[in-house]
Amino acid sequence: MFELVKQSAKISIMSLLANKARSFLTMLGIIIGVSAVIVITSIGNGAQDLILSQIKSLGTDSISIMPGKSEKNGPPASVMGIVITTLTYEDAKALLEKKNSQNIISVAAYSNGSVNVGWKSNSINTDISGTNVDHLYVSDAEMEFGRFFTESEETNLAKVAVLGSQIKKDLFGNSEAIGQKIKIKKQVFEVIGIMKEKGNVGFQSFDGRVFVPIKTMQKLILGVNHVGIIRAKVDYEKNVPLAIIDAEKTLRERHSIKDSSGENDDFSVRSAAEAMDIVTTITNALKFFLAAMAAISLVVGGIGIMNIMLVNVSERTNELGLRKALGANNKNILTQFLIESTFLTLIGGTIGIIFGILVSFLISVIMNLLKYNWGFHISAYSIIMGLVVSTSIGLIFGIYPAKKASKLNPIEALRYE
To answer: Which value, to the nearest 10 degrees, does the dihedral of the CA atoms of residues 133, 135, 137, 138 take?
Structure first.
C-alpha cells in the first residue's frame, strides 16, 4: 500500500508539473474555498473579540435601553437600522427620579446623526451625538481641554459643542479650538471642550464625533423628539438584574403599559452581559452563513477536480491498458486514481490554508493600523478542518473517474487512440 501511495504521489506531481497552468486552474476552486474558510473564521473571531471587548469597556455595571420591542435572545429592531420613536429624553430623566430605580446612579440619552461641520475654510462630514451631562459618567469619558456642557445649556438650547480628539485634529490641526466658532448645519456653535482620546467603540469612533446638548440636537439639528438609546450606570454590577426590572417598571408606567409580561413593551432593556450573548449569537450565525457560501467554492472546486481526473483517464488509457495487461487489477487502478485526486486536493487545500493565513494576517495589520484592537486569530481547528474537507472532496469527486479507469477493458484500452 505504501508503495502504491508513493507511486501515485509521484505520478500526481509529474502530472502537475507537466500541466502547470491546468493544474493550478483545477485547484483554484479548492484554494479559494479553503482560504475563504480560514479568512472568514479569522475575521469572525477577530470581530467578535473586538465587539465583546468594546462592550466590556463600556462597563458591565451599565444597562442600555433601546426603542422597540425585541425577543429576549434577539437584537432590538433599532440596532438593525430601523428608526423607532418610542423613547424620549423624559424617559431618561424619569429613570433618575429613583421612584422605581433605586440602583441607577446616572443616565445618559443619545440622539445621533451625521452632519457637515465647518471651521473657516475646513469642512468635514462627521457623526454627531446629542446627549446630556451624565455622558461623562455613563461612558467613563474624560475631558482633555475645556469643559462639558451644563444642565442649563441643555435646557436653554445652547449652541455649544464638545469635540472628540480626532475631529479636533481633523478640523483645527494644531490651532487652538476652545472658544472658536464652528458651523453645524449652517448654525454657529461655540467649541467649549475637547474630549480625551477614547478609541473605537465597536465599529464607531467616539474620537471622531461632535457632542452637543441633547435638546439642541433634537430641536435645532434633527427636528425630532425621540432619542436613539438611553444608557444607565448602576451602582454595583450585582444590582444590574434588579436595575433592569426597575427600569422596565418605570418605562411601562410612563408608556401606560399595564401588561408586565413584556409582550406589549415598546422598548428593550439589556445588560452588557446580554448584549455580549446577542453579539456572540449574531457573529456565530454570520460565520456559519459565510462558511456555507465558501463551501460552494469547494463544491465547484470538487467538480473541477473530477473533470481533470476524467481527462487524465482519457489521456492515460493506453498506460492503464498496459498496466492491466501486466497484472494490475481493478482495485489497484481504483486506489491509484483516488490517491491522485486526493493528493491534488490536498495540495490545493494546503495552498489555500497558507494563502488564508497570509490574508488574515494582512487584515489584522490593516485593522490595527486603523487603530482597531484587532487580534490575529488562526485556530488549529480551522486548519485541520481545511485539510480534512479538501481531502474529503478529493475522495468524493475522485470516485467516478477512478471507477471509470478501473473498469477499462485492457485490450480496448491498448487499442485506444
So the answer is: 140
